Amino acid sequence: MKLLAKYNRVNVVATIIVLLLSAVIYYFFIEKTLVYQLDKNLVVEEKEIKDYIIENNALPEPSYSKDEQEVYTSVTDKNVKRSFSSVELYNKDHDENIDYRQLEFPVTVNGKFYKADVRKSQEETEDVVQLILKITLTIVLLLLAILFIINRFVLSKLWKPFNSTLEQIKQFNVSGKDNIHFEPSNINEFTELNAAVNVMTKKAIGDYNEIKSFTENASHEIQTPLAIIRSKLELLSQSENLKEEQMNAIQSISETTSRLSKLNQSLILLTKIDNRQFKETEDVNLSVLLHRHLNNYEELLNAKGIVTTKNIAEPVFVTMNETLAETLIVNLLTNAIKHNVEKGSITITLNEHALSISNTGKALNENPAIYFERFKKESASNDSMGLGLSIVKKICDTYHFTISYTHQNMMHTVTVNF
Question: Considering the entire predicted model, what is its pTM?
């Protein structure tokens, strides 16, 4: 979930809760206030009744209107408590029950005791409360709409620098030539974030360039000593009177030197791909390349008893550098042959969308995806350098191809989607 969506959700829920609680509190406050006002009016009515009795020595005329009632009841003693209450009474004239606010108090006329009930209708009070409630709910909905608009547009604009920074980080490539350039922001936190990311990316680029430079220099510097070693080994192998142990030692050194030379060439190739030195592109016919290299490997395949199944569409063109296309094909075929089993099989499928090479092989104990990393191989005893698939992955990344490695029922499948 995006931060803005999360904030909007929390903000809206919190706002609804606060506004609803406020509306409930406001409702009861208004209701109590209006009832209090009715009670004050009833007290005024009480005073007027008592003044009338003093002046006229008689009770006022009873009143039974819908809005106001004055009722007098004779009692035997004066122990009538003065009290306020809310009552619901049936009104015959209007044939309905009406809520009243009532004040009950004792009065004495000519030595006789009476209970006076003064009532005022609460209908208007209820109407006012309902009106206030409707207005409050309308205001709540209006506020929610305003908050939604603010969150949708104002906050989106506020977070624009952050989203821009995030997009720049996603597109950042340590091997790229351009540094990250952030949009200026008047928000201190975003400015600090951009500055921190800028420092981090510059350091990453610097460290990468140092490692790349070291790899380039080391790889090129190693070439000359390796050539000298191979030359000296050839001279030694031609010497007379060499013992068998000496010949075996020379052979072992020669094989190790060859492996080191291949490793060095692979590292140089990876460095060149990283440096984007293979800029020339053309429409390469992968169908032709596959047939050519399968013919080159025919003797090796026959020697290992490997059966090949070809499902190669004709022709399939892919826009890329021809040298890298050959490297891609060679590494995939070499990987399928080298890690195969005696009398195994290889299935090659090529169409305009993908190249898939499957081979029989031993079961894996690890996630196949790790074999796209450098120097990752099936076992330490394997004579592979663990760079073949990493070179393939680097080529695929260069041309935005996707590559996957799956393993099922002793079949290993590498698929490149163009």
Answer: 0.48
